[in-house]
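Researcher: Quick test of sequence recovery. Tokens follow.
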């Protein structure tokens, strides 16, 4: 399921009845959301949610209950646990429902239509009268109407932030973010009940789960044309020669890990290099060598206007892979779990001839090598589809 259709499904949680919201905005005021509301993010970690997460995981490929809980947490994430709407103000609270994070007055600033697949709906937009202090984080609030789905609990969806309304609605960064507000008094058991009734639909909404259960340092690759299968080991695939000596190449290892995660896309659990194309912003020789020379990917390319190898930052650590037969595209992004800002600055100094940085760089590099060899893949790389 694409991100666009996934978001539509989140809006219509039961998937059984179409959303039918109106864009009429002449009489809209914040008072239409009056009351106390609980953020679903404060409920998803409750033990009562476990059976629902297990049911959804059973209906989804490659998921465990903890994985489902993690996705829900990202969908529903908010910096507050409870909010109260009264007149033209919103008060944001911590989990105790008493400690105030911010109390902000808002002005209605119009309805903006949005669409996901066949669904259209309006975001009702509000701007804080003061963008200073604690209200800066909540400067813009956009909200759907309060609604139910075939007798489900009343709820609504929102986004907020100091970014523009246009960005909150259209920026792909927020495409999978659907903070959900349930009526005051809603319990985790009730939310779990909603999920249990619609476990298959929730499973269909989950992002494609790439394999992280393959043997830690082994990868099966299906050869071009012949179909022969070859088993590669991380240590062997990641070795490169430099100045007549061999060393472990971090870039090669990253490519190897990406191929391992992708192997779950094929029924045989092996990596099919003839069925992928790769574009990356990480412009090192090692990245080209692992995909082209070691794995045998013909469709490899560096991004246009890629950063020079000696100036790479974490923003350049992205790897866009297309599964040709499925028409699916994934973008892997490196995290600071592997490439800290300090390490990359040190690397840049060393690559530019800073020999004085060599001992410190060697020590930092050794730590990164340990991470690549031992840290679970999903902690090293974020995956977007």
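Model:
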């Amino acid at each position: 399921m694409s991100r666009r259709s996934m978001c539509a499904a989140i809006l219509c949680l039961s998937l059984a009845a179409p959303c039918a919201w109106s864009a009429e905005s002449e009489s809209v005021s914040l008072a239409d959301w009056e009351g106390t509301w609980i953020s679903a993010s404060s409920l998803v970690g409750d033990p009562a949610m476990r059976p629902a997460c297990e049911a959804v995981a059973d209906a989804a490929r490659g998921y465990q209950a903890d994985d489902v809980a993690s996705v829900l947490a990202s969908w529903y994430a908010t910096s507050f646990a409870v909010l109260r709407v009264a007149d033209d103000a919103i008060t944001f609270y911590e989990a105790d429902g008493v400690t105030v994070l911010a109390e902000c007055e808002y002005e209605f600033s119009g309805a903006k239509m949005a669409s996901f697949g066949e669904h259209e709906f309006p975001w009702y937009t509000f701007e804080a009268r003061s963008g200073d202090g604690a209200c800066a984080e909540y400067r813009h609030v956009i909200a759907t109407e309060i609604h139910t789905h075939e007798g489900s609990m009343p709820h609504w969806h929102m986004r907020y932030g100091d970014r523009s309304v246009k960005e909150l609605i259209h920026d792909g960064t927020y495409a999978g973010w659907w903070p959900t507000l349930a009526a005051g008094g809603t319990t985790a058991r009730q939310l779990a009940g909603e999920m249990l009734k619609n476990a298959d639909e929730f499973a269909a909404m989950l992002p494609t789960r790439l394999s992280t259960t393959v043997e830690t340092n082994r990868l099966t690759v299906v050869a071009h044309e012949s179909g022969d299968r070859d088993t590669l080991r991380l240590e062997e695939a990641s070795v490169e020669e430099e100045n007549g000596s061999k060393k472990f190449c971090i870039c090669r290892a990253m490519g190897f890990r990406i191929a391992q995660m992708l192997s779950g896309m094929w029924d045989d659990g092996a990596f099919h290099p003839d069925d992928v194309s790769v574009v990356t912003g990480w412009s090192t020789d090692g990245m080209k060598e692992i995909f082209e020379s070691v794995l045998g990917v013909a469709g490899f390319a560096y991004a246009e206007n890629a950063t020079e190898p000696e100036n790479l930052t974490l923003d350049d650590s992205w790897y866009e892979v297309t599964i040709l037969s499925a028409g699916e595209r994934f973008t892997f992004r490196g995290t600071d779990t592997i490439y800290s800002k300090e390490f990359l600055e040190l690397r840049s100094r060393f690559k530019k001839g800073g020999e004085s940085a060599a001992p410190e760089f060697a020590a930092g590099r050794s730590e990164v090598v340990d991470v690549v060899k031992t840290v679970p893949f999903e902690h090293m790389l974020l995956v977007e589809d």
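The chain is about 30% helix and 25% strand.
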